[in-house]
Each structure stands twice: as C-alpha cells, then as structure tokens.
Write a structure and sequence with these properties.
alpha/beta, 6-stranded mixed beta barrel, globular
C-alpha cells in the first residue's frame, strides 16, 4: 500500500507540473490585434527592445507582445506563428508592448517585414485582426 501511495503522489505531482507548464503556452490560435511597429532607432517603438537592449531592422520578422503574452520575458527570442487571411508567418519575439503604459492586452506589435510576409494590403497597415500561437 505504501508503494502505491508513493507512485500515486508522484503521478499527481507530474500532472500538476504539466498543467502549470501548459498554462503559459499558446498552443492554439489566440485572437489578437496586430499593430505596425518600428524597432529601429528613432522609430515608433521608442527605446531599444526589452529582450536584448538593442534596436532591430524593420526588415526582420520580429514582434513585441502585450505584457501578459510577453510573460516576463519568457518568450524572448522564441518564434510565434501569426495567421492572417489564410497565410502564416513565423516571427521572433524581441520586445514587450507594455500594457501598463497604454498598450492594450491583446497586441502583436509587428515589424514591417511581418506585414509584408503576410501580404496584408497596404490599406489595412496599422491595425488588423490576426491569430497567433507559439511556434
């Protein structure tokens, strides 16, 4: 009986760990608003990126995520899938769109390269609906 209790407790502990780990992952597509951001010095993004303290070319597939999705930097340098109108592109998280400083909590703030890769019509550049998930 003692062995069964130990095995049972280990099993329950593993279930709790898996459950906690999966709460931070976006394995299914999550609705978001994609906004246009410049990650270059002097661009609309303001200061350097949170993940590395550097500026980045707008010609790279990069994004900033709202504070809750940025998750304290746990998504830094990880790729996410962004879906728009039947197209998908992978972009790397390099920054936080700070929800305590006016950024809404559902934002994928994307570089010009992401907008181009998704073939978003220029008339929609600035803000559009997308879904995203961890890559």
């Amino acid at each position: 009986m003692k062995q069964f209790t130990i095995v049972f407790l280990i099993f329950i502990s593993l279930l709790v760990i898996v459950s906690i780990s999966s709460t931070n992952a976006q394995s299914s597509n999550t609705d978001a608003t994609m906004t246009l951001n410049s990650f270059e010095k002097g661009g609309s993004g303001g200061g350097p990126s949170e993940c590395d303290g550097h500026y980045h070319s707008d010609d790279t597939l990069i994004v900033a995520l709202s504070t809750r999705w940025y998750n304290g930097g746990q998504r830094c340098f990880k790729n996410i899938n962004i879906n728009y109108s039947g197209r998908t592109v992978q972009a790397m998280v390099v920054d936080e769109c700070d929800s305590t400083r006016g950024c809404k909590d559902n934002i994928v703030d994307a570089s010009k390269a992401v907008w181009k890769a998704l073939a978003v019509p220029k008339s929609e550049w600035g803000e559009t609906s997308v879904t995203w998930s961890d890559a």
